[in-house]
Design brief:
The protein is an alpha+beta fold. It folds into 3 domains: about 170 residues, no CATH class; about 110 residues; about 160 residues, 2-Layer Sandwich (Heat Shock Protein 90), CATH 3.30.565.10. Helix content is about 50%, strand content about 15%. It has 10 helices and 15 strands. It has a 6-stranded mixed β-sheet with strand order 1-5-4-8-7-6. A hairpin with a 5-residue loop joins strand 4 and strand 5. Helix 4 runs antiparallel to helix 5, helix 5 packs across helix 8 and helix 6 packs across helix 8. It starts with 5 loop residues before the first helix and ends with a helix. The relative contact order is 0.06.
């Protein structure tokens, strides 16, 4: 069974709440109204009896005796008298009265109560009694000074007619109004849920990979948290997809060099007829494959750092050890580049707080980028790792073609390559460097090279604390 729509649920819930509130109120109001009607009718009945008692007192009981000594019969709505008819209803037959003397003899009685026995001795006030085919409401006054007893009566038919009229008045309009109310509630619910329809339409029309903020015109306050949560989820999803795209590109960029080195060594081993040369080439290929495995592990570590909360969980890293490891990894690349590499390292460990894999990727990409863009046979590359009062500094200087100052801000874009640049690449090296620097709160500067031409890249990282000194503290 399919779930009901939100519109249908809201419509029936609203109608149910209205019915739940109005029906008890209607029943309570009807009971109160009927109670008031009964009190009003009883008051009218008592007033009629007292009026009649006053009139009899004024004329005297003897005036009520007939010529034969019997009481006066007042014919009410019988066949020989004209009936009092108002709006198609005969009222006279529904009311009547009786007047008795001290001995209980009828002095005056209406025709519809002629056979009703006199009240018992001491019976006064209101009482209900069945007489004939009807139920009557009787009111008896205490005997007056002259001993006359007056009793007024009213059939419950009149009260039932009033009750029926009241029920129709109270129940019929709501019964007629409920279908109209259902239509109006349905219209109001549809109108109130228009922002949800607009949100659904925008979600359906949203293109994959879109970075646009999801907005709904005149969104109600209740929908604002939903929009904020959706935009936050979209942002996180796009960041995750962007990380995946970056990782794929980084893998292709980072693995290209060790794979090429491995292929060259294997080709040299196949082409060589000297066993010792072949063994050396295979050993170099083995080292290149080992470097490839380390590079893959570093890439995975960098990807995990970017995609998890562990990016804020740093450890103390020695930049001196990282620089030595990177130089060993790039030894074959340095040899093939036919460039002169000048390395200046500190004599003591230089500690920074960060991630070893990210720092190694930063230094490796800076060196590879410099080696790729220096002129063949005359290339000069300098790697400098040094300490400042509050920072550790990494500098890579080359005498390549350099980058004009007005273009230096654009080189950090992914897949960006300067027109006319030497070497092969995919424009990812400086992008990886920038991301690694961001993980370490480092500043990157692109400056003019002191070698006459080329580029000087300076990365300044906050100094860390040696592990031993940190534990002592």
């Amino acid at each position: 069974m399919s779930a009901a729509s939100l519109r249908s649920r809201l419509r029936w819930l609203i109608l149910g709440v209205i019915a739940l509130v109005l029906l008890p109120l209607g029943v309570f109001s009807m009971r109160r109204t009927m109670h008031e009607v009964d009190e009003l009718s009883d008051g009218r009945l008592a007033q009629s009896a007292r009026t009649l008692q006053v009139m009899i007192g004024n004329i005297g009981p003897a005036a009520l005796q007939g010529h034969d000594g019997e009481g006066v019969m007042v014919p009410v709505s019988n066949s020989s008298m004209q009936k009092l008819v108002l709006h198609g209803h005969t009222y006279e037959s529904e009311v009547g009265f009786q007047v008795f003397d001290r001995q209980g003899h009828a002095l005056m009685v209406t025709g519809n109560l002629a056979d009703l026995p006199p009240p018992a001795a001491g019976q006064v006030g209101f009482v209900d009694q069945h007489f004939g085919h009807y139920r009557w409401r009787l009111f008896t006054l205490p005997p007056g000074a002259d001993g006359v007893v007056v009793r007024a009566a009213e059939r419950y038919d009149s009260r039932r007619d009033i009750s029926r009229a009241l029920w129709l008045e109270h129940v019929l309009p709501p019964l007629i109004a409920l279908p109209v109310l259902a239509l109006l509630v349905g219209w109001a619910v549809r109108r109130g849920l228009r922002p949800l329809d607009a949100l659904a339409a925008k979600l359906a029309a949203r293109q994959p990979g879109s970075h646009d903020t999801l907005e709904v015109a005149e969104a109600p306050r209740e929908l604002e948290p939903v929009l904020a949560a959706l935009n936050d989820q979209f942002h996180q999803l796009e960041d995750a997809l962007e990380r995946e795209r970056r990782f794929s590109a980084d893998v292709a960029h980072e693995l290209r060099t060790p794979l090429a080195s491995t292929m060259i060594n294997l080709e040299n081993a196949e082409a060589s007829r000297d066993t010792r040369e072949a063994d050396a080439a295979l050993a170099d290929a083995r080292e290149s494959l080992a470097a490839l495995a380390r590079r893959v592990e570093q890439l995975l570590s960098l990807a995990r750092l970017e995609s998890s909360s562990r990016a804020s969980q740093r450890s103390e890293v020695d930049l001196l050890a990282v620089a030595r490891t990177v130089i060993v990894e790039l030894s074959s690349v340095i040899a093939d580049s036919d460039a002169e590499l000048d390395v200046t390292l500190p004599r003591e460990p230089l500690w920074v707080s960060g991630h070893e894999a990210a720092l190694a990727a930063l230094m490796r990409n800076l060196l590879e980028n410099a080696l790729r863009h220096v002129p063949g046979g005359q290339g000069m590359v300098q790697l400098v790792v040094m300490r400042e009062p509050a920072h550790a500094v990494i500098e890579v200087i080359d005498n390549g073609e350099g980058i004009p100052p007005e273009r230096r801000a654009a080189v950090f874009a992914r897949f960006h390559r300067e027109v006319g640049s030497r070497g092969e690449g995919y424009g990812l090296g400086l992008s990886i460097v920038q991301r690694a620097a961001q993980l370490h709160d480092a500043a990157i500067e692109l400056l003019d090279s002191p070698l006459g031409q080329g580029l000087r890249v300076r990365v300044r990282l906050p100094l860390g604390t040696a592990p031993g000194a940190q534990s002592q503290r």
